[in-house]
């Protein structure tokens, strides 16, 4: 059968093979100045993001930072107002069909047909991928086995546990191996066991060379899974680097002091600042910042951010030498007559990461004192 | 999960090459629409196979309504202008069965939206139109079956197919046309406000709307302005036309709507479709906005 002439709009992408991108960037995801507004609220406010092929990239940010909007644009569910976004070498707005052939999406909530069994769900998605009746069934069985769901494959989804749903959801996005897999907060709402299951699945996918872009609210998750981490706030990237680079900048651990008396919070703040000392805080406040324009804001972040929370009578500061800092704070407090109710060493929270890297609290944090 | 030694993805790579082709020609696109629509329709059938009890209940519900009205209330009803009340009632119940389809379509699509299934479908390399075509084919098939059950139930309670075969088939056609209009109204409502709360509101509001018709009694027996609304209710047009075509007793009335029931039974659904189909399609493609 002679093939009719191609519309010119498709000429470039037609010559593309799945492994050779239509554009020269060669990146799995390439986003420039992406904007999306709802009313007068900008969900994405000039987002830049580049994910090289074969890597795992975490987009870290609080609720409302624009993570889900970004994923929805990249998976062709949402059209951006302006800016460009390419996935697997194809523009998401001009060639959504080409993008859809190359991606998998696992949204925030398991997107499955609750009435059908796990096997029926996978078979349905297989048939929608045109694997044929037998091919779909075979692929469903393979995936059920791979995700340890073979025994429960015939049960209706509504009888599945949260972790099982997630695994099946993940399996459903791998019917045909995607070039780029998007995971939107894949472990939110899961118990530790479910989280571990998802993590190990993501690692095994990454090991096979699939590019993974995942969003998360958990620093630990980004640390565990991702080659590189982008920090999102107010619809913009505020920092990017490897998890190690980011951690070096924010200090690996923090000492947190809870005071017995609210009146002593300010005195304690000065004391903690002196005790952890300039030499004790992360000296590596370089190298983690992406070199793009517009990242200057992140550069102003203070690596020795002291966080004072008057409501909770809490003072915390980053430390590098954990035990020395703990001893120093306790000694100084004893000398100054400040009564400490509780003291702990802990990993930084997402809020502190933001405060450290951006010099201000993330969108979600409202306490005016915390920003002081 | 990570301990598997064999790699299932390897086998799929071969298939991947084939399935990765994006349809570029109109013929290839049409093939995809047909293939995906068939798959989507099959999904609905799989639902019913998995929950036969619920399916049976759904089919039995209008039969139960029919029995209630024919035997609990029907004894006290007399058709103005003469004739058996049950013969009058049954065509009304046919129309009611079709009108309730709005709710069924809306519930199903709203569930898909709220469970994120619609988003998964939209992120997959399928023909987007197959989502709505599949929904339509499935719901029409279920309603055709429901109508068959109701025809049998009607015959069982004493209703008779008095007209010619052609007239009877025309009546069935008009009923399915009403269902098709309700289907697209349901799709539109689900896309506009696909929230479980709205579904509940529609499930309640559908009752006064179907009762404000000539399904159970003549609009002449209602207060003047209510009767006029009931007279012009699209469901009344279909019920009236079906009575005419099956040669069943109609409530004696000289209103314009009652006199032109068949024409209105064609016009009303077409008007609803002319409004709802473009709106729903526009809404569907605006999901990405």
Structure in words:
The complex is a heterodimer of chains A (372) and B (289). By secondary structure, chain A is an alpha/beta fold. Chain A has two domains: 24-243, 3-Layer(aba) Sandwich (Rossmann fold); 251-371, Alpha-Beta Plaits. Chain A has helices at 11-14, 67-74, 96-100, 118-128, 133-146, 162-172, 192-207, 219-225, 243-250, 265-280, 296-299, 322-336, 350-358, 368-371, and strands at residues 27-38, 41-52, 56-60, 82-87, 90-91, 103-106, 180-184, 211-216, 228-233, 236-241, 253-259, 307-309, 314-319, 340-346. Chain A has a six-stranded mixed beta sheet, with helices on both faces. In chain A, a hairpin with a 2-residue loop joins strand 4 (82-87) and strand 5. In chain A, helix 4 (118-128) packs across helix 5. The longest helix of chain A is centred in the middle third of the chain and has 16 residues, at 192-207. Chain A is elongated, with a radius of gyration of 24 Å. Residues 1-24, 278-303 and 364-372 of chain A have low confidence and may be disordered. Chain B is mainly α and 289 residues long. Chain B has one domain (22-288). Helix content of chain B is 75%, strand content 0%. Chain B contains 13 helices and no strands. Chain B has helices at 8-19, 26-50, 52-73, 85-99, 101-114, 117-123, 129-156, 165-192, 196-211, 224-232, 234-246, 256-259, 261-285. The longest helix of chain B is centred in the middle third of the chain and has 28 residues, at 129-156. Chain B is elongated and about 65 Å long. Classes of the chains: A alpha/beta (372), B mainly alpha (289). Chains A and B meet through helix 3, helix 4, helix 5 and helix 7 of A and helix 1, helix 2 and helix 6 of B.
């Amino acid at each position: 059968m002679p093939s009719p002439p191609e519309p010119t709009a498709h000429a470039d992408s037609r010559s593309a093979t799945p492994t050779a991108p239509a554009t020269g960037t060669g990146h799995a995801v390439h986003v420039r100045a992406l904007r999306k507004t709802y009313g007068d609220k900008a969900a994405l406010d000039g987002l830049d993001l580049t994910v090289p092929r074969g890597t795992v990239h975490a987009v870290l940010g609080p609720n409302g930072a624009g993570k889900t909007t970004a994923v929805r644009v990249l998976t062709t569910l949402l059209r951006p107002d302006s800016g460009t976004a390419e996935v697997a070498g194809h523009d998401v707005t001009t060639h959504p069909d080409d993008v859809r052939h190359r991606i998998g999406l696992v949204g925030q909530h398991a997107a499955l047909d609750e009435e059908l069994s796990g096997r029926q769900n996978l078979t349905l998605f297989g048939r929608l991928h045109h694997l044929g009746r037998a091919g779909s069934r075979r692929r469903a069985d393979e995936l059920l086995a791979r995700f340890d769901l073979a025994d429960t494959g015939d049960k209706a989804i509504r009888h599945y546990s949260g972790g099982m749903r997630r695994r099946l959801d993940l399996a459903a996005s791998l019917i045909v191996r995607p070039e780029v897999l998007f995971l939107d907060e894949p472990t939110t709402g899961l118990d530790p066991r479910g989280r571990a299951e998802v993590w190990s699945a993501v690692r095994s996918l990454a090991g096979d060379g699939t590019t993974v872009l995942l969003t998360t609210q958990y620093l630990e998750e980004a640390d565990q899974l991702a080659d590189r981490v982008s920090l999102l706030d107010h619809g913009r990237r505020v920092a990017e680097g490897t998890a190690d680079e980011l951690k070096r900048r924010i200090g690996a651990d923090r000492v947190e002091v809870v005071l017995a008396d609210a009146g002593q919070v300010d005195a304690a703040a000065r004391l903690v600042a002196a005790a952890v000392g300039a030499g004790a805080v992360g000296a590596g406040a370089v190298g983690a910042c992406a070199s793009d324009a517009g990242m200057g804001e992140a550069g102003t972040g203070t690596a020795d951010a002291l966080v004072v929370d008057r409501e909770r009578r809490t003072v915390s500061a980053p430390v590098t030498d954990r035990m020395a800092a703990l001893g120093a704070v306790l000694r100084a407090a004893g000398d100054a007559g400040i009564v400490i109710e509780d003291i702990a060493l802990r990993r930084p929270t997402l809020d502190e990461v933001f405060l450290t890297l951006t010099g201000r609290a993330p969108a979600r944090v409202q306490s005016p004192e915390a920003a002081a | 999960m990570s301990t598997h030694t064999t790699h299932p993805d390897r086998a799929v790579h071969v298939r991947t090459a084939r399935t990765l082709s994006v349809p570029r020609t109109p013929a290839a696109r049409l093939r995809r629409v047909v293939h995906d629509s068939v798959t989507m329709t099959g999904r609905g059938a799989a639902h019913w196979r998995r929950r036969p009890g619920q399916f049976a209940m759904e089919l039995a519900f209008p039969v139960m309504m029919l029995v209630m009205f024919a035997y609990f209330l029907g004894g006290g009803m007399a058709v103005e202008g003469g004739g058996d009340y049950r013969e009058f009632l049954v065509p009304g119940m046919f129309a009611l069965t079709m009108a309730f389809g709005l709710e069924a379509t809306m519930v199903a699509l709203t569930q898909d939206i709220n469970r994120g299934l619609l988003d998964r479908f939209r992120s997959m390399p399928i023909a987007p139109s197959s989502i709505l075509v599949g929904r339509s084919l499935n719901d029409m098939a279920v309603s055709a079956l429901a109508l068959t059950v109701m025809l049998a139930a009607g015959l069982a309670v004493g209703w008779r197919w008095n007209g010619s075969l052609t007239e009877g088939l025309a009546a069935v056609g008009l009923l399915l046309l009403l269902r098709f209009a309700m289907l697209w109204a349901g799709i539109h409502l689900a896309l506009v406000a696909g929230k479980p709360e709205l579904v509940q509101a529609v499930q309640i509001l559908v009752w006064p709307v179907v009762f404000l018709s000539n399904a159970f009694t003549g609009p002449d027996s209602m207060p003047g302005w209510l009767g006029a609304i009931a007279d012009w209710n699209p469901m009344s047009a279909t019920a009236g036309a079906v009575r005419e075509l099956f040669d069943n007793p109609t409530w004696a009335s000289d209103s314009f709507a009652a006199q032109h029931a068949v024409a209105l039974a064609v016009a009303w659904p077409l008007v609803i479709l002319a409004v709802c189909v473009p709106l729903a399609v526009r809404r569907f493609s605006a999901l990405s906005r």
